[in-house]
Design a protein that fits this description.
By secondary structure, the chain is an alpha+beta fold. 45% of the residues lie in helices and 20% in strands. A 3-stranded antiparallel β-sheet has the order 1-2-3, with helices on one face.
Length: 154
């Protein structure tokens, strides 16, 4: 009988500890509650704007440098931005953006595009080219990422 009482008391202590621990952790990680006037508490972080995409079409086609035969590179480029006015500025300056990208891409050779890391570097450089055009023309960049949706070497 004495052993049953000790066992029951032990189970009750463990149960109370589990309930108390759960309550403690749930209370400390509870989301911010709205203030009296309906606004969220200051601890809430601002939500990030959803990305928007813009296609630079038609595709870019350039000759690769230092090739014995004729080699071509065709790239389809998509732009991503989280700012509101970026793509209206891209449309406005698209002829210069396409020109500067064509000049940049025409400097590439087969070795410069051989690996995934090199292609990612080209994406970063293309983003820098586009943002430089936007900065020089309108005073601010705005492109957050450049994606190659088609990459063909022939």
């Amino acid at each position: 009988m004495k052993m049953k009482i000790i066992l029951i008391v032990g189970v009750l202590v463990l149960l109370l500890a589990a309930v108390g621990g759960t309550w403690f952790f749930m209370k400390s990680t509870a989301p911010a509650m709205p203030a009296a006037d309906g606004e969220m508490a200051e601890a809430a972080a601002p939500a990030m704007k959803a990305p928007e995409y813009y296609s630079l079409s038609p595709s870019f086609v350039v000759n690769l440098q230092n090739e014995r035969g004729m080699r071509f590179l065709m790239i389809e480029i998509e732009l991503m931005s989280r700012r509101d006015d970026t793509f209206s500025r891209v449309e406005q300056y698209e002829p210069r953006i396409r020109n500067d990208l064509l000049l940049f891409l025409s400097k590439l050779d087969r070795e410069a595009i051989a690996t995934v890391e090199q292609r990612q570097k080209i994406q970063e450089e293309a983003m820098a080219v586009i943002n430089e055009v936007l900065k020089s023309e309108s005073g601010k960049g705005g492109i957050d990422a450049v994606y190659f949706t088609k990459f063909v070497v022939q």
